[in-house]
Design goal:
Layout: H1 3-6, H2 30-33, H3 50-65, H4 71-92, H5 95-120, H6 122-128, E1 132-139, E2 144-145, E3 149-151, E4 161-173, E5 176-179, E6 183-189, H7 191-194, E7 201-211, E8 218-223, E9 228-231, H8 235-254, H9 256-267, H10 275-284, H11 294-308, H12 313-331, H13 335-353, H14 356-373, H15 381-406, H16 411-435, E10 437-439, H17 442-466, H18 471-496, E11 502-504, H19 509-527, H20 531-551, E12 562-566, E13 575-578, E14 584-588, H21 594-603, E15 608-614, H22 619-622, H23 625-629, E16 633-639, H24 647-658, E17 662-664, E18 670-673, E19 676-682, H25 693-696, E20 700-705, E21 708-712, H26 718-727, E22 735-737, H27 748-754, E23 758-761, H28 774-782, E24 787-790, H29 791-794, E25 797-802, E26 805-810, E27 813-819
Parallel strand pairs: 6-8, 14-15, 15-16, 16-17, 21-22, 22-23, 23-24
Antiparallel strand pairs: 1-4, 1-7, 2-4, 3-18, 4-5, 4-6, 7-8, 7-9, 10-11, 12-13, 12-25, 13-14, 18-19, 19-20, 20-21, 25-26, 26-27
Helix pairs in contact: 3-5, 3-14, 4-5, 8-9, 8-17, 8-18, 9-17, 9-18, 10-18, 11-12, 11-13, 12-13, 13-14, 13-15, 14-15, 15-16, 16-17, 16-19, 17-18, 19-20
């Protein structure tokens, strides 16, 4: 035998051309005998554009996330790293690494240029000085109603506020007109603001402020008067606005969850969706169905392709592209919509071509184009979710669908199952990073909702299109969509109501990466089901779940699920109550200086303060008000009867400069800020002749959220405490903000009536008043208070719900999490 011939495996010897192909034994199809993960060899992926997109993304994000101080040094580190990678690539001839290095440097340049240009804009410089100015702006997106408070007492009202995203063209400052290209967030009230149409040109006047929360700094303006239209919007934008208004009208006619979901699902108008549906959809993993996303564009365009497929792929693709463009106009060309449209287009490309080899370069190219057009997307959670979800759809859905078909599933059902499962799995790490929780029911909820989305979306679009020209047809289509919309809402409520529908997860990037690693481990078992892989995956899964939850202390601030935070501001008070909107809160008092409360709110990521409640006008409660007002939107300032001068005039002046209404509150006034309910308990009038009339004039509020009751008391002293006891109001709460920094004057009978499980004391280290008094601490122990938190020893303090248990967290020692005896 020829030795060389003997060394060649038999499988490598080609069969004669005439030889028949091997067949499976009779009665056993070859496909059916093979494992589902081994159905067909996966196609070789074309990843050449991926390093470019990844490097550009990382470089831009790193630059935008750098703090203002020390940013240059950090940037040099990143540039040096990029140069090292590039040098290594040149030496070792690794082209992929070379592209990555160049893209990192390009991303740094793009991000830093965007920030520098924004900060050098004349409008931004005027905003830093809180100047009054006149701006000529183009409306970039439809007005959005701000989360606000609703007063149940008719004597306390405030107009609905709207935020409008605009692009500046001209700035008039002290009579001088200069060009401006700033991105301007406009806040105003009234129908003149609510009815603004994207594309129109208007002139506005008001006080400028820095809008520091966008990744690329911008400007905010609170209007002093109604905007003046200089040029109408293009006809196509006016028509789109009519369609959106008609759809909102149909939603109001339907009412209930179906009516609220109709404009949300079709055109992204979520104003009518209530807090309960929002919270339940979040718990059930169905939040993406409440507004427009890339999957919506893909569904509609896929439906068009299905209708036109017999006309050929080019005509079908052209029709889908036309519909895609129309959807962008209908919904509004805002960044989130354009991002969703691009990702939807990538999905359609994958569907038409039928090859993930073409879809991945298309996705990477879309990332590059979008980042160059809008660098702020690099740090946008929505952008990350869109990219990851699209990648999951184009990479995982085709092989999973083929595997299910090979096991006897019909192709339609296989796709219906594969799409939500793939999207849920790949987006879980980002979602847990944002919410601090894992939706256990997300996959089954999405599987059940998937058949409802397409008909609801199609009927909803038809209703919008018929609205201006055929009202009866619009009603018929809206009625046809209603059962599907109600079904989606019912699934959200039903799945969210299950015990342990969500599981808490430690905050921070580290644990998001850990979750991604655990998911990957499970995937390895499915792909390589050997004993070693199973053992490895089991170890990874146990580590990912048990180590963060059971062994290590929680990381980051604020803790997930926080309800109330006491800010460490020295000898003074500044307390924050959360709402169901992530960046929105109610603030009680502002401490003695601006910097501490500003830092506390920044760490809590609060961009909108619905209510700023100034309990009374002592400097340790109002001196830091600028720290609350600067760099964020403040809806209304509530005050009590205290009118101490000069603090009262100063408060009115600073509110007037910023265009913020100041409203007096009194007993019986009720307010809702999202799912946070507030009731004013006192005072019934100004005190006179007491040991401290100003302290006794403090506003007292009872708050309720997620079944937890809280009492904010300002600095009330014995006289005001006796008045509350005599009034017979409900003082029994879970959490007490202790009056007057823990003064010895707090009445034992008042503390007994409150009987808090957690007491929070705002107090300065080594203060001259002996706060908190030992007698006060002893009295709290006597009434059964489980946890006493004090900012002088604990730093920022928080109360939260953790798996249904009221818990306390001290920022100075996050490991010391104490379950209270609730």
């Amino acid at each position: 035998m020829n030795p060389s011939a003997a060394s060649v495996p038999a499988a490598a010897v080609p069969a004669p051309a005439s030889a028949p192909a091997p067949t499976a034994p009779t009665g056993t199809p070859a496909r059916r005998r093979r494992r589902w993960v081994e159905d067909d060899p996966p196609p070789v992926q074309d990843l050449r554009v991926v390093p470019l997109a990844l490097g550009l993304w990382i470089g831009t994000a790193a630059t935008l996330l750098l703090p203002a101080s020390g940013g240059a040094g950090a940037a040099l580190v990143v540039v040096g790293s990029a140069s090292a990678v590039l040098g290594l690539a040149v030496v070792r001839r690794w082209r992929g690494w070379a592209v990555l290095g160049v893209a990192l440097a390009a991303g740094i340049a793009i991000g830093s240029s965007a920030v520098q240009l924004a900060q050098q804009d004349p409008a931004f410089r005027a905003a830093e000085q809180h100047r009054y100015a006149v701006l000529q702006v183009e409306i970039a997106a439809a007005p959005v109603a701000l989360p606000g408070f609703a007063a149940e007492d008719g004597t306390v009202t405030a107009p609905q506020q709207y935020r409008v995203r605009t692009a500046a063209q001209q700035l008039t400052l002290d009579g001088t007109v200069v060009a401006s290209a700033a991105q301007v967030s406009m806040i105003g009230v009234g129908p003149a603001v609510a009815e603004l149409v994207p594309g129109s040109l208007v002139r506005v006047a008001g006080t400028l402020a820095v809008d520091a929360f966008p990744a690329v700094p911008g400007v905010s303006i609170r209007l002093r008067s109604a905007p003046v239209q200089l040029a109408p919007a293009p006809a196509v934008d006016v028509a789109a606005a009519r369609l959106r208004a008609g759809l909102r009208a149909q939603g109001e006619r339907l009412g209930g969850d179906a009516g609220a979901l109709l404009p949300g699902l079709v055109v992204g108008d979520t104003a009518a969706i209530d807090d309960r549906l929002t919270a339940d959809a979040k718990a059930a993993g169905l939040t993406h169905l409440l507004a427009v996303s890339g999957s919506h564009f893909a569904l509609v365009c896929g439906f068009v392709v299905l209708l036109t497929r017999r006309l050929g792929p080019r005509i079908a693709a052209g029709c889908a592209a036309t519909v895609l463009l129309g959807l962008v106009v209908l919904v509004g060309p805002q960044p989130s919509v354009l991002r969703a449209a691009v990702m939807g287009a990538v999905t359609i490309v994958a569907m038409l071509v039928g090859r993930t080899r073409s879809a991945i370069p298309a996705l990477a190219s879309a990332v590059v184009v979008l980042l160059i057009a809008d660098p702020a997307l690099a740090v946008s959670a929505g952008f990350g979710l869109s990219v990851v979800a699209t990648a999951g759809l184009v990479l995982l859905v085709p092989p999973w669908t083929a595997a299910l078909v090979a096991r006897g599933w019909s192709r339609g059902w296989a796709v219906l199952v594969a799409v939500p499962v793939a999207a849920s799995i790949v987006t879980a790490p980002i979602i847990v990073l944002l919410s601090g929780a894992i939706s256990v029911v997300s996959i089954p909820a999405n599987l059940m909702a998937a058949p409802l989305v397409a008909p609801a979306l199609v009927f909803g679009l038809l209703s919008a299109l018929c609205g201006p020209w055929w009202p009866a047809g619009a009603e018929v289509c809206a009625d046809a969509a209603a059962p599907f919309l109600s079904g989606i809402a019912g699934l959200a409520h039903g799945w969210a109501a299950l015990p342990q529908a969500t599981l808490g997860w430690p905050p921070g990037v580290l644990w998001a990466v850990a979750l991604a690693g655990g998911t990957l481990a499970v995937g390895l078992v499915l792909r390589f089901p050997g004993p070693r892989a199973i053992i490895f995956a089991a170890g990874c899964g146990a580590g990912v779940v048990l180590v963060p939850v059971q062994v290590l202390p929680p990381l980051g601030w604020p803790p997930p699920g926080w309800l109330m935070v006491g800010c460490e501001v020295g000898q003074g008070d500044a307390f924050v109550m959360s709402t169901d909107v992530a960046d929105t809160a109610v603030v009680f008092d502002a401490g003695p200086e601006p910097a501490p409360v500003a830092g506390c709110l920044r760490d809590l990521r609060i961009g909108t303060v619905i209510l700023l409640i100034i309990t009374h006008l002592h400097a340790d409660h109002v001196g830091g008000i600028a720290g609350v007002l600067d760099d964020r939107s403040v809806g209304t300032i509530l005050v009590g009867p205290d009118r101490t001068e000069p603090a009262w005039s100063a408060l009115l002046a600073v509110a007037a400069r910023r265009g913020i209404p100041v409203i007096a509150a009194g007993p019986g006034n009720r307010f809702s800020a999202g799912d946070l309910e507030l009731t004013a308990l006192g005072p019934s009038g100004g005190f006179a002749g007491t040991t401290s009339d100003e302290n006794n004039d403090s506003l007292v509020f009872r708050a309720q959220r997620n079944g937890v009751s809280m009492l904010a008391t300002g600095d009330i002293e014995p006289e005001a405490q006796r008045a509350l006891l005599a009034a017979g109001v409900d003082l029994d709460v879970d959490v007490l903000k202790v009056p007057h920094h823990g003064s010895a004057k707090d009445l034992p009978q008042f503390l007994a009536a409150v009987s808090p499980q957690v007491a929070m004391i705002g107090v300065g280290r080594d203060n001259d008043y002996g706060h908190p008094a030992p007698s006060l601490l002893a009295a709290l122990t006597e009434v059964g208070t489980g946890s006493v938190l004090r900012t002088d020893q604990d730093g920022d303090i928080a109360v939260l719900l953790d798996a249904g248990t009221l818990s306390a967290v001290r920022r100075g020692s996050l490991a010391a999490r104490e379950p209270s005896r609730r």
